[in-house]
Amino acid sequence: MSEHKLEKVIFNPDGEDPVEFFVLEQTRIGGFNYILVTDFEEGDGEALILKDLSEDGDKESRYVIVSDDAELDAVASVFEDMLEDVDLISDEESEV
């Protein structure tokens, strides 16, 4: 069995401590890069979709958490198609 190591990124929210995430997948939609990240390298964990708002020539990427419901649903659907063994469940769905 081959071991696949996930790329680790550090998210630095304004005024908060840095948070490490593991990148599950990435895609480009409508001219923007999106990454699907999780807080655990293995097993079930919290997942977020981050959108890259950095400009060409920026030294570092500038990601924001996707919170618009329509955008989140559309991008999540793309990631679900890319990752056949992953089901993304929104907070609203998990509370029902």
Task: Please explain how this structure is put together.
The chain has helices at residues 69-82, 91-95, and strands at residues 7-11, 19-29, 32-38, 47-52, 63-65. The chain has one domain (7-85). Strand 1 (7-11) and strand 2 (19-29) form a beta hairpin. By secondary structure, it is of the alpha+beta class.
Q: How much is the radius of gyration in Å? A: 14 Å
Helix-strand makeup class = alpha+beta
The major β-sheet equals: 5 strands, antiparallel
Low-pLDDT runs of 5+ residues are: none
How far is it from the N-terminal to the C-terminal residue, by CA?
37 Å
What is the N-to-C succession of helices and strands? EEEEEHH
Total domains, how many? 1
- What overall form do the CA principal axes indicate? globular
Beta-strand percent range: 25-35%
Per-chain topology:
Elements: E1 7-11, E2 19-29, E3 32-38, E4 47-52, E5 63-65, H1 69-82, H2 91-95
Antiparallel strand pairs: 1-2, 2-3, 3-4, 4-5
TL;DR?
The chain is of the alpha+beta class.
Task: Note the main attributes of this structure.
96 residues, alpha+beta, 5 strands, five-stranded antiparallel sheet
